Amino acid sequence: MNNKQLDALLRKGEPVMQTVDSGLYFRIARSKPSWVVKYSLGGKRSQIALPKAYPQCSISEAKQLALEIRSNVKVGIDPKAQRKREQQVAIRTVNDLFTDWCENDLNKRLKHPQIPKRLYRKEMKSHIGELAIKDVNPRDVRDIIQRILVSGRPTTANQTLMYAKQLFRHAVKLNLITYNPAQAFTQTDAGGVQEGRARALTFEEIGATFEVFRKHNDIFTRENYLACCLLLTLGVRKGELISAKWEQFDITNRLWHMLEENKTRVAITIPLPEITIKWLEELHTRACGSEYVFPARRASKRRAYISDDTLNHALAKIFGKKVDSKKQPYPNYLEEAGIEHFTIHDFRRTCRSLLARLGVQGHVAERCLNHKVKGVEGIYNRHDYLDERREALELLAKTLKPLIHAPSKKFK
């Protein structure tokens, strides 16, 4: 076969399968030409089309490609399987690796994959994201960890190291690298072994803290204030509160039907003390029609409710910490009021401690915080203690009311 003969077949446009060389055929199907290589592998006959057709792929080029395919078949290489591998999404940079890790592991395995995603975006991406995976070395990992430590965030350093290990372990699994550049590092190299927090605020500290919040409402907004009131009074987790939708609340019967999308993955009904209804009614007005109790305060493609960092940053500002690289930090107003440092999550521990102080039985207090009951009791005791929890939270709310309740007119 030569070019003139192939051109003549093309002009006719009729279906044809013409032998050109050993195992190589020129085919016209549906008026479209293609090169086809036929072969036998494992006693089964098969065929594969070359990536380019005539005339983009000349006769001599087609013969060379067909020869390579037949040579591979002789040593047991299936050209179709090889082509599928070549068509796989290329994973070259660390950003490519992270995308593949998210799609094939994080999004399937974790309930809250946004945590490692946020840490990668904020702590790792700008330093190693564009590097080829094979070019990342332990010194790069150490530099990332040390930058975080210099900023005074040991917990974040530990978390970043943990997810860096998992990220590059994914690369080892895919045979993209032979060793994990983060594997040799331990907590000692990052934030150190951290003891569980034990911080809980006393009644006196609660009163002083919320007084500071009210005094500096230009920094600590009314929405943030009410969020802290609810966290302290109900003992729920921050993520459960900020992601809540209005459809979950039965204001008439004073109930919050929390869905199973929480840490314990079990739906629970939370009784709402009387004082919280006023807070929720105000939040509903401030939400301006949003389906969320705490809608996002700026346009976001990621989600329609406030960031996980919103309350943390607001509290950090009152503690005089620098959270905005473009602005100077405020004075440490809480320290000036004699308040030792605490975190938003410490409100939950404070709630549990205050329930114990008020004489609430342990099993009821644990259910108030939606803790899983361990052991045999957790399997067989399915009672929800709704009435007991309502009584306990109402007692706590009445005790806290003089310390934290403030009408909205005192806020901007």
Helix and strand layout, with pairings?
Blueprint lengths: L2 H10 L3 E6 L2 E6 L2 E10 L2 E6 L9 H16 L4 H8 L7 H16 L4 H15 L9 H13 L3 H20 L29 H13 L6 H13 L3 H5 L6 E2 L4 E4 L9 E4 L2 H13 L23 H9 L14 H4 L9 H12 L4 H7 L6 H6 L5 H19 L8
Antiparallel strand pairs: 1-2, 2-3, 3-4, 5-6, 6-7
Strand arrangement, major sheet: 1-2-3-4
Strand segment count: 7
Name the helix and strand elements from N-terminus to C-terminus, one letter apiece.
HEEEEHHHHHHHHHEEEHHHHHHH
- Computed over alpha carbons, the radius of gyration is 32 Å
First-to-last CA distance: 86 Å
| Arithmetic mean pLDDT | 89
- Unreliable residue stretches: 376-382
Question: Based on helices, strands and strand pairing, what is the structural class?
Answer: alpha+beta
Describe the protein in words.
The structure is a single chain. The chain has 412 residues and is of the alpha+beta class. It has 17 helices and seven strands. It has helices at 3-12, 59-74, 79-86, 94-109, 114-128, 138-150, 154-173, 203-215, 222-234, 238-242, 274-286, 310-318, 333-336, 346-357, 362-368, 375-380, 386-404; strands at residues 16-21, 24-29, 32-41, 44-49, 249-250, 255-258, 268-271. Strands 1-2-3-4 form a four-stranded antiparallel β-sheet. A three-stranded antiparallel β-sheet has the order 5-6-7. A hairpin with a 2-residue loop joins strand 1 (16-21) and strand 2 (24-29). The longest helix has 20 residues, at 154-173. The protein is elongated.
